Amino acid sequence: MPSQERQQLSFYRRTQRVVIAHEADIFCRGLHSLLATSEGFEVLAEVNSCTALLEIVATTTVDTVLIDCMLADGDCIELTRRLNEAPSPPHVVLLASRINDELLLRSLLNGASGYLTKDTPGHQVLACLEGLRKGELALTPPVASAAIRLLTWECYRLAATLSATTSSTGPAIAMDQTQAGSPQHRSEPASAESRRPAALPHLTEQEQKILRLLRLGLSNKQIAARLSISPYTVGKHVQHILRKLGASNRTQAASHTSFEGPQVEDEQ
């Protein structure tokens, strides 16, 4: 048997070494007890801070870390990034109270291997963590659906940004090169103001909130639930946004904000 296959079988057979990072002792104990019901897991430690978790990972071989996204002494996204920079990075699975689109997207883009909500049934938690052995992400079906939607929109946004940037800067670069020998262009370089992208048309605070959620791929109904307004009201705001941006549809509005004007602040 080739050595690679032996190593693979050895990995599948060995116990998954886990560290739980959560501020609530009762939650740690409950999760520890759940993992103890399966022979495939060994809980190495329970910690209540980012600092303690980093110390353990630096000195111990850890396969998987389960991290509460609300740890007080650090940011879970930054922690995920640092753990993935370790010489032998563990699987990072975030634990959250609900599906937060922005947190889910950022965690996956920064190398997280999973995202579980705290109301996930125990058998699904075990199944998701077992899936890590096979190269799968630790995501339940609802979270996986949200992740696919968010990542699809992020790919579209990046493609739209690249396309728009290329089409808008290409001719300008060519023109600068053509006119580089002109005396007035040598003596009168373009000002910072003239090189600055055009600002977005004025949007109200509510329109900015809706625009931010549009960029995450949310439907009118989902936006209405997030902002506690009616879908009809959301629809009217979307019409105003499209008119102000000169966009013919939601997709154009989302791509417009990806390369022009300031980022809209995240919803808390």
Automatic annotation (TrEMBL):
Gene3D superfamilies: 3.40.50.2300, Winged helix-like DNA-binding domain superfamily/Winged helix DNA-binding domain. SUPFAM superfamilies: C-terminal effector domain of the bipartite response regulators, CheY-like. The keyword Phosphoprotein applies. Residues 170-202, 249-268 are annotated as: Disordered. Pfam families: GerE (PF00196), Response_reg (PF00072). InterPro entries: CheY-like_superfamily, EvgA-like, NreC/VraR/RcsB-like_REC, Sig_transdc_resp-reg_C-effctor, Sig_transdc_resp-reg_receiver, Tscrpt_reg_LuxR_C, WH-like_DNA-bd_sf. CDD domains: LuxR_C_like, REC_NarL-like. Residues 185-196 have a biased composition (Basic and acidic residues). Residues 249-260 have a biased composition (Polar residues). Keywords: DNA-binding, Phosphoprotein. This is DNA-binding response regulator. It comes from Thermogemmatispora aurantia.
